[in-house]
Amino acid sequence: MTKLRAAMLQTRVYADKMENIREAGRKLEALEAEQVDLVTLPEMFNCPYQTPNFPVYAEPQGGPAWTACAELARKHKIYLSAGSMPEVDEAGRVYNTAYVFDRQGRQIAKHRKAHLFDIDVKGGQCFKESDTLTAGDQVTVFDTEFGKMGLCICYDFRFPELARLMVEKGAKVILVPAAFNMTTGPAHWEILFRCRALDNQAFVLGTAPARDPSSGYTSWGHSIAVSPWGDILGQMDEQEGCMIHTLDLERTGEVRDQLPLLKHRRTDMYHLEEC
Ligand SMILES: NC(=O)CCC(=O)C(=O)O
């Protein structure tokens, strides 16, 4: 399969955790005629993005939100990148975790955000995920009928080494549930996604929550899809909505053959190693 039809849902985040999933379900019903293969949701799509909320909304893998997402994937026979949600482990540690489910509703990927978003921009955005979250420590790549895909969460995508390791493991598409803000969004969002696509000659899909100016953290929105050539296939505004693109996965091979950046790396001079 070389043509992947992907729908990116830029959703609003409601205070009621399960209402966010019911709303995603209604949007999937509305998409039925579109015959999409993959649906992507935003970072923390079922939890208003505020550090005190993470432990309150967190559930273990297999909890009610996880189960409802698995069921949506199964019911609609799609791959579902279920954004991210707060996950709690047996020791009570809380993570920002992204799950992907296959068409049978089986979990095929899990990524715990590895780079916690702790920033303090003078006169701008301040945030400290590490107040309540623990970082993951894995590079996440998974198999689909369309080939391998990579998965990371928002701030993770700023670290070129992580995306490169995904590509070294075979990823041709990288999924990024994300939620940039009103300081770094206008400055860095688009250029970052284009850079990562160019560096890695891969499709990149960044899915963000719709903007809610009354929330404690204001999302930039602007969900974006970029091709391996660095073209923006589509970018949304700040409103709630859905964007559908058909990704021709043969394009990755064509770009990598014609402009062989990955082959031209001087691995005798430098290399990247996963610990
Ligand atoms: N949720 C996040 O990780 C936000 C990342 C972000 O805004 C950035 O500038 O990086």
List key phrases describing it.
alpha/beta, 275 residues, 6 helices, seven-stranded mixed β-sheet
Explain this structure to me?
Pfam families: CN_hydrolase. GO terms for molecular function: omega-amidase activity. Keywords: Hydrolase. Residues 4-249 form the CN hydrolase domain. There is one protein chain. 24% of the residues lie in helices and 27% in strands. With 275 residues, it is an alpha/beta fold. Strands 1, 2, 3, 4, 5, 6 and 15 form a 7-stranded mixed beta sheet that branches. A 6-stranded mixed beta sheet has the order 9-10-11-12-13-14, covered by helices on one side. Strand 5 and strand 6 form a beta hairpin. Helix 1 (17-30) runs parallel beside helix 3 (64-76). The longest helix has 17 residues, at 184-200. The two termini are 33 Å apart. The structure holds ligand LYUYDEPV.
Write the layout of secondary structure elements.
Blueprint: E1 3-10, H1 17-30, E2 38-40, H2 53-57, H3 64-76, E3 79-81, E4 85-88, E5 94-101, E6 107-112, E7 118-120, E8 126-128, E9 140-144, E10 147-151, H4 160-168, E11 173-177, H5 184-200, E12 203-207, E13 224-226, E14 232-235, E15 241-248, H6 250-258
Parallel strand pairs: 1-2, 2-3, 10-11, 11-12
Antiparallel strand pairs: 1-15, 3-5, 4-5, 5-6, 7-8, 9-10, 12-13, 13-14
Helix pairs in contact: 1-3
The structure holds the ligand NC(=O)CCC(=O)C(=O)O.
